[in-house]
Amino acid sequence: MAHQQNNFEQLEEELDSISSNLKILSLLKLVISFFSPSIIKCWSFQQKGFSGQSAYEHSFMRSILQKMVSENLLEMRISNKGNTLYRIAVS
């Protein structure tokens, strides 16, 4: 019975480790993903508590994102289609 308990505890530790790694990977995916005002608008429309942000004009959101680029909080690039994309600055 003690052997089964040790195996169960070991399994729990491994699952905790996997869960932590998945959370880190999800966070990294957010950090390295590029986004646009359109993506923010679509995302916020689907989220509880953020639906008010979907009413913001693209120009307003773009000005906020540009300000964040000037403060080195975001990085910017141009997509293959010519759209401006942003992501959290990786320093």
Count of distinct structural domains: 2
Percent helix range: 55-70%
Major beta sheet summary = 2 strands, antiparallel
Amount of beta strand: 5-15%
Number of strands: 2
Tally of separate helices: 3
Give the SSE order as H and E letters.
Answer: HHHEE
Structural class given helices, strands, pairing?
Answer: mainly alpha
In the sheet with the most strands, the strands line up as 1-2
- Topology-level CATH name of the largest domain: Arc Repressor Mutant, subunit A
The end-to-end distance, rounded to whole angstroms, is 51 Å
Which consecutive residue ranges, at least 5 long each, have pLDDT under 50?
Answer: none
Gyration radius from CA atoms, angstroms: 20 Å
CATH class of the largest domain: Mainly Alpha
Mean pLDDT, to the nearest integer, reads 74
Can you tell me the overall shape? Answer: elongated
Q: Architecture of the largest domain, according to CATH?
A: Orthogonal Bundle
Note down, in words, how this protein is organized.
The protein is mainly alpha-helical and 91 residues long. It folds into two domains: 1-32; 33-91, Arc Repressor Mutant, subunit A (Orthogonal Bundle). Helix content is 59%, strand content 11%. It is built from three helices and two strands. The chain has helices spanning 2-32, 37-46, 58-70; strands at 74-78, 84-88. A two-stranded antiparallel sheet has the order 1-2. The longest helix is centred in the N-terminal third of the chain and has 31 residues, at 2-32. The mean pLDDT is 74.
